[in-house]
Design brief:
Elements (H helix, E strand, L loop, with lengths): L14 H17 L7 H8 L4 H18 L5 H24 L1
Helix pairs in contact: 1-2
Length: 98
């Protein structure tokens, strides 16, 4: 279910909350716990991360791959352009605050 999660826009996808709830219910069934049992305790017992944490790890790993790939790669060029444009917008917004 986390296929290509590193490029998802997780803030704009309410279906992910349903998926997280479904995972919690699955953990309850596996462990045979009551509904009142903490989700954190169930994940710790099973040794798994939350779905949000897994998506965050995948995103960071993807960012690392992009940052360490060669300068000639198209993905790296696009990343550098986006990063540069975001920096320009940030500098302009900071100048407006002053």
């Amino acid at each position: 279910m986390t296929y290509a999660a590193e490029i998802w826009n997780t803030k704009a996808n309410p279906a992910l909350n349903e998926f997280d709830t479904l995972c919690g219910e699955t953990h309850e069934n596996i462990l045979g716990c009551q509904r009142k049992t903490s989700r954190v305790a169930m994940r710790a017992e099973l040794g798994v991360l939350s779905q949000q944490a897994e998506r965050d790890v995948k995103s960071l790993m993807f960012l690392h791959r992009v940052c360490t790939m060669g300068q000639e790669r198209l993905t790296r060029k696009v990343y550098e352009c986006v990063k540069r444009d975001e920096m320009i917008v940030y500098v302009e917004s900071e100048a407006l605050k002053e």
